[in-house]
Queue: 2 jobs
Job 1
Amino acid sequence: MEKKITYIEEVKSNKKIHNWYPGRRECTSERILLNPYIGCEVECFFCYALGYPGNFQKFRKEKKIYIYKNFVENLKEQIDKLNIVFCGYLSPVTEPFQEVEKIYCLSERTIKLFVEKNIPIEFITKSVIPESIIELIKMQKHSFGQVSILTPNEDIRKVLMKKGATTSELFENIRNLAKNGIFAVCRIDPIIPFITDNKKELEIVIKRAIDNGAKHIVASIMDIPVLIKSDIMNYIKKKFGNEIWQKIETLYIERIGNYLHANINYRREIFTFLREVCDKLNITFALCMEYEIKNGKVIGLNKEFMTSFNCEGIDIPVYFRKNDKFYPFTCKGNCLNCKKGNCGIPELAQGKKNENFDGWNYYDYLRWNKIIEKEKLL
Ligand code: SF4
Ligand code: SF4
């Protein structure tokens, strides 16, 4: 019998804030990564987080969701010491509005903290966005929402994940964001070969997203973490049959790090199609974490396919403190491609780093405090 999900309250967390981890980064803007929960009740069969170590494996094997009960207090304590901040991102590895949120409200309280301090925050969701979140997000001018819609076909969506909002609710999410003046992104992320890659259906997702007010499209093709390949492939065989299983086995021939990727020609064809549809429909487009190996080097594909300035379609500057709140600097927040670093912190531009670099964290922020105080940028 399948195990039931249980909640484990990790009463104390002293996790320090962290931006993107180094390595194959394509995200143009810096983000403060926010993960109040480890484990996700949406349970997408392809979820990459199931391949991560530590408590992620406990979730995978024992169905335990870890809750950082003092997440917001710990975060606030750190933010109160900073004079410079980037947009928060809720959450790279779990669904922020999953069931557990109804009990602990950590996502909502995190958003409230950011909005009260006038710090931008974004979320990615496959659930219904609560009204209270819309009311908060619309108060902060650079905050926005991303809704993942993998297929227009509700029968297929239900096989891809155990929970999450219905297809109509997902499009309604976009409508709700847009009608409240909030920048809305539709993520077709990931596209699953031979299951959700039908071109007519992909075009329907884009059209419906635009009709509901989306301003930007992000796409990727499913990667398979090597650690959980057998789980993923067994699920595909069981739910979609031998033929599709075999086609996927044959397609995933490219290994980059710990992930298997679909053949580059297949991926290029889909991305070219999507970009053309987006161009035709006058909406910007970008990829998420898509790479190819060229002459032995791993190269990001976004340079070739992205039609927006920043990969999430919205330009969010770094923010500086003034008294109790934060205010935007005059830049477009495209650190990865920024030439000068006019913010006063040149090491942020183009993600400059030394070889021991593990991604910007709380202690880098404290260091930057001193730089911007000295440069009198506050
Ligand atoms: S919603 Fe995201 S984090 Fe949750 S199971 Fe699906 S892919 Fe994983
Ligand atoms: S000025 Fe450049 S490096 Fe500095 S925050 Fe803005 S985009 Fe990033």
Note: The radius of gyration is 20 Å.
Job 2
Amino acid sequence: MTKTQDIPEILTCPKCKGPLQEIGEAVLSCSVCTLQFPTRAGAVPIYGLYIDENPEDVGRDPDQKWNMDEFEEGYKFTGYHESGAQFDHCLGFPSEVSDFLYKRVKDRLVEMVEPGEGHRILDVGCGAGYFLMLIWDKYQSMGFRPKLAGTDISMYQVSYMTQRMEKEGILDAVATHGNGEYLPYADNSFDLITCSEVIEHVRNPGRALAEMRRVLKPSGTLLLSTPSMQAQKTWSAILSPFAAIVKTLKGYKPDPNATLGGYDVPWYPKDFKQTIETSGLKILDFEYNAIIPHPWHFKFLPTFLVKPTVKFFEIADAIGKPLLNSLALHFVTRVVKA
Ligand SMILES: [Zn+2]
């Protein structure tokens, strides 16, 4: 195995935040608590800085068990992808629905990004890195070259991200296999942190938000998005009679691959706002975006109806707010340190 590159100056021990040093080939050790961490060499190395100090924590939904193996299984199934639409395609969602959702969630987050000189950016739950690349593209188009970092609990996804960074020639990116509740970065490291469609999968989101706050610079911005439980329940109640009829007529059987599996607890807006604020953060914008039923409802809609139905919801989304907030599938928020 080749020797690892110098340890990026922003990396720290995820447990005690002490400095890391290289001991032998491809192993880092904390100078304070002596925990050891594996590193995978490569054009963009992967620092294996995952810890979990509370494996018995039941999280916000005691009926679901948080299990890393389940996430890995789901992500093995979706494989390498370079866009959110490709990812959704693996789940069998119609592309018209994905396009609409990504426009109102990921693209909206990118609109909120304010590029600047010398920025360092972290994506928590970076997956295969496509969202970091969207942000990178915006910086590039304005003549900036930010430093990128991505952390994910899935080793498969982090290794896909390093493939992507290598392909794009971004060899100074920092890739960590890590836990959002124990971020392996020094205090005040990042100008921009993004965490999109991830916080609902985190067992202790308050702890993860406090960690994001810790590693955010005082002048930094944190962008979050997450699905709305309120919208999912409202849509299911509205659509259940129609769904029952269509399912019976079409002999619909649920596709076992339709969801990734793994811990998933969407939020009510009040709880989400409260958790952000009690984590020492201040909400600057809180948007209710994408008025449309969850993509899984489209699986039993006749194909020729998908396009006009999405068009209808695009119009409702554009004109219906704030009257229809309870039907908006995602919250999109911009927050700073309180
Ligand atoms: Zn340590």
Note: The chain has one domain: 40-233+256-337.
